[in-house]
Amino acid sequence: MRICMYEDKQDLGRHAARIGIDRIRETIARKGHANIILATGASQFEMLETLTAAKGIAWDKVEVFHLDEYVGIPVTHPASFRKYLKERFEQKVPTLRKFHYINADSPELEAEVSRLSALITGRQIDVAFIGIGENGHLAFNDPPADLTTSKPYLVVALDEACRRQQVGEGWFKSMAEVPTHAVSMSIPQILLSGCIVCTVPDARKAAAVEMAARASIGPEHPCASLREHGDCYLMLDYPAALRLLEK
Q1: What is the per-residue pLDDT across 127-155, written as a single tens digit (0 to 9) for each?
Q2: Domain 2-246 is of which CATH architecture?
Q3: Spans of all domains in the chain
Q4: pLDDT value of position 189
Q5: How far apart, in Å, are the Cα atoms of 239 and each of 71, 196, 207, 208, 209?
Q6: Looking at CB atoms within 10 Å, which of 14, 170, 177, 217 has the fewest?
């Protein structure tokens, strides 16, 4: 795992996007198409701004897989990750080949999970743009996370720390409004990606960053699993890297 530190979240976002941009271009040049994963949340704002403004990406040759979504949230809800990605990504790259969204408000939720799992199974994901939660989660795989599942997507319960983060970031007004479950890509599936670009700004993520870099790899430390990947970039601003710099 390469750990890269930048002065502020704007600089961090630009550099994180550029790593992915280069990989997407190289992949399309080599095999004619690319598959990527996109995350959401406040941590991805600056990265997505640079990614969508990039020149020279043949978006008509790119398919995108959705990382996670709240169960029961309609696409019109302000906190919907589908709404976020439509507005911050898909509408800005109108020639995109395909975006495979998680319809987690489907009345047939298990069928939706099976559909997504079948879509991604056997496909090489070339770049995964992800983040880390304040509790160390990857996607919505809160501790203790299932690190051995063979399922590409699963329904997971959200722990209190995760739900507090969503209120703290302003997506919901209170804990009572935050869903208790989500559909999430599994950690084993994320780790199958050719390249992982993990963008983590802000001092509130410093403990999670330390977990990613130093904690033992196991269910209680989901983000530490990134150290098992051979081509992972942990992209930090200085506030997020604070604990690494102090010790």
Answers
A1: 999 999 999 999 999 999 999 999 999 99
A2: 3-Layer(aba) Sandwich (3.40)
A3: 2-246
A4: 98
A5: 32, 21, 11, 12, 10
A6: 170
